[in-house]
Design brief:
The longest helix is centred in the middle third of the chain and has 22 residues. 39% of the residues lie in helices and 17% in strands. It folds into two domains: 143 residues, 3-Layer(aba) Sandwich (Rossmann fold), CATH 3.40.50; 132 residues, Rossmann fold (3-Layer(aba) Sandwich), CATH 3.40.50.720. The strands form two sheets. It has a six-stranded parallel beta sheet with strand order 3-2-1-4-5-6, with helices on both faces. The chain has a six-stranded parallel beta sheet with strand order 9-8-7-10-11-12. The chain has 296 residues and is α/β, with parallel strands linked by helices.
């Protein structure tokens, strides 16, 4: 516990289970922490104080921490365990200009509106260390899903990974490590060069139809509709597709259903498969932001 943190109060508003662990870890570090939006869960929250509403949680806070993603529709705070909606617009009117506002995957509209209200905003998911940690946790969650959902062992099975950003790299590396035959499909030649250097097969996105054929598992990380009905028609019925892209995803789910192809839209995997680790990772990034902003 750091005595320096004792005089600083933080408010955690909404989110999945990882945000409770985030609040608990911040409390363990010595911060005074209040949180709300978790009415329907009794997950232990350590020394953090559970509040009935956002107004109570915000009182006296030096910083306000929103979840990742902060919202799924731009109108309501992402708070699946809240008994009532937490409207983004209303919340912003209660945040004071003296309070630092943090959140994950903040939209331009949200940032613009917050700045209009003279609020200082930080998107903690733009922190490189956190995004890499999040990618690793996502990859582990994807492996757990695949092991559970496929009726066969993964070793030697052909796996197609779409996209080679942070998440794509982590996914391709992990599935290759467990013995899968991994092929990476991407748009950029430099991305495919890195995938080749990592020992993966490579194919340009323009050849996706060919690449989709004969795969036991297709994992998408690209937030664009790339697995449309034309591409899906080349995939096998036994193929499992796991879409990691943010809503609405990169798969035509209706077309996949008509073709008899199983799909899983696996959103926010770190919060589902490793909430303690994911929550603590967010908390550590929050502390780093607070230091940079001079709050602590």
């Amino acid at each position: 516990m750091n005595d320096l943190y004792n005089s600083v109060k933080l408010a955690v508003i909404g989110g999945d289970i990882r945000m409770i662990y985030c609040a608990a870890y911040l409390s363990e570090l010595g911060f005074e922490v209040s949180f709300c939006g978790f009415d329907s869960t009794k997950t232990p929250c350590g020394g953090a104080v559970r509040c009935r509403n956002t107004i109570d949680a915000l009182k006296g806070a030096s910083a306000v921490i929103l979840p990742v993603p902060y919202s799924t529709d731009g109108c309501r705070v992402n708070a699946p365990f809240s008994a009532s909606e937490i409207r983004v617009a209303e919340l912003l009117t209660h945040v004071m200009p003296t309070q630092l506002l943090l959140g994950g995957v903040l939209s331009d509209g949200f940032i613009n509106r917050a700045e209009e209200l003279s609020l200082t905003v930080t998107d903690y998911m733009k922190d490189e260390e956190l995004t890499v940690k999040n990618a690793v946790t996502t990859a582990e969650g994807t492996l757990e899903l695949a092991l559970r959902e496929l009726p066969v062992t993964l070793r030697s099975k052909p796996v197609l990974v779409l996209g080679y950003g942070r998440v794509g790299r982590a996914v391709a590396s992990l599935f290759k490590a467990v013995g899968c035959g991994v092929t990476v499909c991407a748009r950029r030649a430099d991305a495919l060069a890195w995938a080749y250097a990592a020992g993966c097969g490579t194919v340009f996105m323009s050849d996706l139809c060919r690449a989709a054929s004969g795969k036991a598992l297709i994992i998408n990380t690209v937030p664009d509709l790339i697995l449309d009905k034309n591409v899906l028609s080349f995939a096998d019925e036994k193929t499992l597709i796991i879409d990691l892209a943010s809503y609405p995803g990169g798969v035509d789910f209706d077309a996949a259903a008509r073709l008899g192809i199983r799909t899983l839209h696996a959103l926010s995997l770190p919060g589902k498969t490793a909430p303690v680790t994911a929550g603590e990772d967010i908390a550590e990034t929050v502390v780093s932001v607070l230091k940079k902003r001079g709050v602590i």
